[in-house]
Amino acid sequence: MTRKQIAALACEELEKIYPDVECSLVYDKPYELMFAARLAAQCTDARVNIVTKTLFVKYPDLEAFANADIAELEEDIKPCGFYHTKAKSLKEMAQQLINDFGGEVPQTMEELLTLSGIGRKTANLVMGDIFGKPAVVTDTHCIRITGRLGLTDNKEPAKVEKDLIKLLPPETSNHFCHQTVQFGRDICRARNPKCTECSLSYFCRYYAKNNKVR
Ligand code: SF4
Q1: pTM to 2 decimal places
Q2: With a 6 A CB cut-off, is 194 part of the ligand 1 pocket?
């Protein structure tokens, strides 16, 4: 079976299980997704959602973040960890969005990567979820699962992204990545994946190897 065929089957199976899955970060405004994603580095989405529930009320717009007292902002986001660098990013991002992009979230990878603390993963998330553009968000679940399936031999996010771009239909790549996150939480866990319950096992490289199917 070719990688392209495996990718098509994976899309098909995940669509059956998770047709309506969405990003688990809660946000109203485009920049809030970016800020929440920045806070989610090394933290769970669930915890970020608890923090942002009050954070986005206390700081209702970009100006509020741009003018925030940094020590106070650090306290506000402390439960998310790495609060010194994350607070600095949020404040700087707000200033950059106001000064360089007229208060709007930019739409291209090149522009998004100029923002403080934003890497390809968050940039792809924004491009896919906010602007509906083809995007591959290579988070830890996506990397693990696509590796197990045999869609990539890489572990480095940028390389996995390159591999998956060649295999996934552009119109569904962003959705596929959200599906892998949920699938990674429910079935294909990092430790003890539930292979015997998995509907992807018949084309999974990891399963074949561990069960000597081929
Ligand atoms: Fe993951 Fe196992 Fe399913 Fe393969 S068979 S996708 S390793 S849960």
Answers
A1: 0.90
A2: yes
